[in-house]
Amino acid sequence: MTTLAARADTETPAPRTSSLSNSGVQSPHHFRSTSSNFNSNILQYESIPLLGATDSGSWVQRWSAKFNELASTFWAAARGNTTENAIRPIRNSNNVGSLRVNVARTRSRRTLSFQVYIWASLAVVFLIVILGVLSGGRADKPKTPIDLPDLASRLSLHFVPTRYRLSLTVDPESESDIFVGSSAIELKPITKSAVSNITLHSAGLNFTNANVSLYGVVTIPIGPSEFNSEAFLDQSSISSVHHSIHRTSKVHTSSFEPLHPVQIIWNPTFETVTLVFDREIVQPDPSMALTLVITYTGSLGYRTMRGFYRSPVTPALDGAHPPKKQRFVAATHFEPLFARRAFPCFDEPHLKAKFSVVVAVPSGFTVVSNKQVEEVVEMPNVKGWYVWRFGDGIIPMPTYLVAWAVGKMTFVETKTQMGARQGTVVRGYVYDGMNEDYIRFAVGVALNSVKFFENMFGVPFPIEKLDLWPMPDFSAQGMENLGLCIFQDSGIFIKASRQSNRSEENERSKVIKDLTVESDPSAQIYVSNLVSHEVSHQWLGDYVTMTWWNSLWLNEGFAEWAQYYGTNISYPEWKIFDKFFELEHMPVFEKELGGYARSVGVRDESSVNRTADIIRMFDDTTYSKGASVIRMFQFWMKNIEPDPQFIGGDNNTDDKFECSTWCRVVRNYLANNAFGSVSPSNFYDSVDTEDSSGLISAAMQGWIEKPGVPVVWIDQDSAVRQERLTGWRNSTLIPASKPRKPDPDDKGWFLPFAYKFVEVNVTSPALSEKVFWQFLDSRSETHIKVRSDAQKLLIANPGRTGLFCFKPSTQDLTLYAAVMSQDHSILSPIDRAGLVFDMVTLLLSNYVLPNQSLPVLSYLKNERNPSVWSVAVQQLSRLLRVMEYHNGYPDVISFVQKLVFPAADYVGWWPSCDKENHAANSFTMRELRSIILPFAAYLKHDKTVNASLKLFDKWVESANVPNVTNPCFQINEDKGIMIRIVYETAMRVAPLPTAVHLRNLSLALPGAMDSDRLFPLSVSEFPFHLKILVEQPGHLLNKLEVLKAVAKNGGQIGVEMSWEALRWGRVPSDDETTSQFQSGWEDLLASGGPSVDDLVEYVVSSGFKGGAVWRDAVAATGSSGGGFGVYPQNESPVLTAVRRGLERAEAAAQFRDVLGDLVKNAI
Questions:
Q1: Residue 766 is inside which H or E element, if any?
Q2: What is the pTM of this model?
């Protein structure tokens, strides 16, 4: 057969033109205690067998139907028609978005008279109740209409929870998806006015009035040792098992008898339930807590990644044979609004309470929760079931941090050594049958992070243990539940092996010692940062918690900042802080460039008043920009007083820790708000304890509340200027004295501005160690002392601590090109990464000219640092993409090849694992190889292309799945990179035969059919290959990665195909009364999240200005011409993403028109 290697060529990658029309349509747990005093803690209360437990909402639907009958008869009577044919019940929609309020009545069904006036009277009564509810009238008396929550689902509070006692019964591997729960909530009145109703959150949970009781005293629990022996119950009935655990118990009563609600009002739109009682709720004894008890059923979601759900465990682990029965693991994910899907609760972050958890599961399962498990007891009356009781919570938590998980697991553990004080147990879990060594890397990072953060924050770890639990499906990558962090398993497993004797396992230190890590460096960095991030949350987010989601940066921004210290203390040789710009600043600039950006924090809570608004707070702006602003002011406060040692430095160890100014700020913040709910003002107050002027806290608040990022330069009068960085600046050169006219509300930023100099008038450049600091006032001019010697190069923002781009002067740009070509190591890696970013960004935004920026970038042919190249690859890819349809594109390709190919020659193809190849297999070399080779393959680097094609031919000719571990890598991270390069290269050279081989199920090729062997089709030159990708089955929201690949790799044809799928695709309808399918675009507008926003923006920005995608995108915004810049304040964020995409597409068009020829001439 003809090999692909024989067909390789080295011609320039050519852009593709669109062939589409322009219409645009289309194992056991280690216990802390073995106390037998079980019966004083296990949750016990009156438990009534669930009515209609297997018939979701049967009573609600029954009485709702009765109301509809009455209403229909009333209006028929009004028309003079009293015949039986006039009774036509209105269909009760199950659509979650319906505004219908369902009413459950407890009285018996009465025989109705056929007289018209009786029908009419009853109907009027029902209508008055419904209209009163919908009108929002407040109920201070029994049976009076009550408030419904607003769009923020904020509860109208008369009571607040102080403690929850939760009990769950579940079998993750049952054919039934039902779990049964009981929730006993101790309530505290917070208003003086007496009310007869309680409103709380509940979504997808089933219970009736008979399952709800309100007690004025706490019930007396009956422990397992007091259970009466009963006949064996059918364990297939989860409800029966749960009822056998929670037997009816006697309740102490005085003048206040247990109450059951007379009415239950469900509001599926706001996910609330209101319990209406027939009398005012009055405590007979204020010293005794009111206790609301609800027994309910819920659905154990399948791979829903929210609420309480289960996921299948990969059948084959480490080459083990698949089990005969599919295994499942179950866990919770409640952030931000999903606790209500597992238990009725007051689901708002400021409503902290203490929690106790009891879980009943079949034998063989391990259960974990926030607290240490105290006892596991076999149920005497239900064969094969065990009750796991966890310690009583003593730390108040918001509902979104409550957690439990169930699975057949094994674990490894270690423990911090803290002298006389009892240390913290750190445990990592793996699926049963999996190599335990895979969790040791994460456990080691968690252990080091716990010890370091205890020193850094001056607060012991909040509770006695920390569990790390994997899930096959997890939407948030990691979740910081107090004492139980849950991760997407790819974010916690690292392939590793131990050389030490396994008999030494009892030595805790052996858990992480002698560990040989085999995973790709990028995977190690990702897992280390993620684990450290979640560990830091135990203080920053759990110990103190933001009051509402508009201040989410107090949780996520701080954890994103702190994660680098946990990684640095574990692996200082990585120099992780050099990656801060790459991992944090770059996403901010990408997000904040131009208009339509939001601020990190929103001052007004009501501005984050929709579920979509809350979910979209979990984005790069909150995480990366929040962390960047924190780091910027951390370094500024460092200059208030000299710090002998800086936190996270090489000299900070467990035995000796020097706390810096910023460290004291954070310690004060934690100490003053321990276990509380906080707002930004609480943190700013802590800043003021170290800066009595209040200037720093005011400046920081401005950064938090102001969207966008600045670009800074120094004019000819030595005045430092700034303006908001835009996608395209309207003038070619920055004016000498004044910036462009600012927007009316654009007052600039208070900016910590640092700079130093490089002496370039000597044989070799010399960098001055002295750093100058200026605080730039946003309202007045700031002048700096610039050098009079023309041979001094000003280096602004050393260390890249400031969150801004800097435009060097024309003279400095010339000096930069000379210095970097002579000795680029004069600058630190993070400064070089920042310089590369600035040069491309300022070029594409029309702040510098091509003949100024491109000569500076020419030094990259000598660059060998992975962090710098990670930034460079992304930036050079941006430049190529913008120039793709300009006639200077081949020249740009040639220019980029000259920069990249020397680095590709340096790293080479993956070598064998022989000892003589140690240098080629170092951490840094492996990291650089994974960054450079995919880009080099795209640029048609001869050695990379030939190696790829020869390997592909070898795989195709192999009769069995080829062994791809011959080079020096062992697991999917490395293998995945090689597979991607090989398949994509083959598709570019010979797309037709390669596609046949990749989609041939009978051909044993490496990689998964639905990913590794599917996505390479996106680089094909044939549209029908792209169509195969776009038309993959599944919901639109599950194809975002596919559409991104098509738009990224498929040229304008791919862009148009992706946009057509987004804009005109159809999805299954949720409304049974309508057609089977509905508009996918409308679905995206209503339920899309940050990932949808990012994809929409990318696709639109990749289209031609004036082209099919452009025109249809403009139409989608309801605008015409260039009017897409004006938009309603409360429009769907998806439409705002469309506007951002249009803005960037226009900037790209202007760049090609104005500077495209200059780029070609400058190369």
A1: strand 766-767
A2: 0.82
